[in-house]
Write a structure and sequence with these properties.
With 133 residues, this protein is mainly beta. It has one domain. 7% of the residues lie in helices and 62% in strands. The chain is built from two helices and ten strands; from the N terminus they run E-E-E-E-E-E-H-H-E-E-E-E. The chain has helices at 62-66, 70-73; strands at residues 2-5, 9-14, 19-24, 30-37, 40-46, 52-60, 76-85, 89-100, 103-114, 122-129. The protein has a six-stranded antiparallel β-sheet. A four-stranded antiparallel β-sheet has the order 9-8-7-10, with no helix packed on it. A hairpin with a 3-residue loop joins strand 7 (76-85) and strand 8 (89-100). The radius of gyration is 15 Å and the shape is globular. The model has no long low-confidence stretch (mean pLDDT 90).
């Protein structure tokens, strides 16, 4: 499993399951439910004050979603992105940089859905770099 941490997130990639997990740090919220947006699963949590926040992101069939091989995903250099939650919509943009033939190679995914879940307005950055990069 490929693991690394950023300031606000941890990233894990499991090549056997071909699943990528991005978990927010420093968020105190109890798990509530998961929603699916274009094969991207968003874990929702509720804070003690009742705010509904995204606490994590799971990407199943990550190699297919990003259009790279499982081997490539085992050589992630960095990940960045932005998840924006508005009253009406949720927008997801994730940019992945992998090492391919000893050169950085960038792929990105974008998704958008209606905010039918009562999520609180927020935006958060996804930023993590591999320790071996």
């Amino acid at each position: 499993m490929n693991n690394f941490e950023g300031k606000d997130v941890t990233l894990n990639y499991d090549p056997l399951a071909d699943a990528m997990y991005i978990k927010r740090k420093n968020i105190e919220a109890e798990y509530d439910h998961t929603i699916e947006v274009d094969n991207i699963y968003l874990d929702m949590g509720v804070t003690k004050t009742g705010e509904k926040l995204i606490t994590g992101v799971e990407i199943i069939d990550a190699s297919e979603i990003f259009g790279v091989t499982k081997f490539d995903l085992s050589h992630i250099i960095k990940i960045s992105g932005l998840i924006e939650v508005y009253k009406e919509t949720v927008k997801i943009n994730i940019i992945l940089e992998v090492l391919k033939r000893n050169k950085p190679f960038e792929k990105s995914i974008n998704a958008k859905t209606l905010n039918e879940y009562g999520l609180s307005n927020e935006s958060f950055n996804i930023q993590a770099t591999s320790a071996v990069a």
